[in-house]
Amino acid sequence: MSLRLQVGFASIAIGLLVLGLKMASYWLTGSVALLSDALETIVNVASSCAAVFAIWFASKPADSNHPYGHDKAEYFAAVLVGVMIVLAAISIFYAAWQGFVAPKPISFSATGIGVNLLAAVINGLWAWFLVGFGRKNRSPALSADGRHLYTDVASSLGVVAGVLLVFATGWRWLDSLLALLVGLTVLWSGWNVMKESVSGLMDEAASEDVLEKIRGLISEHGDGALEAHDLRTRLAGRITFVDFHLVVPGAMTVETAHDICDRIEEAIASDIPGARITIHVEPEHKAKHSGIVVL
Question: What average pLDDT does the segment 27-45 reach?
Answer without folding.
Answer: 79
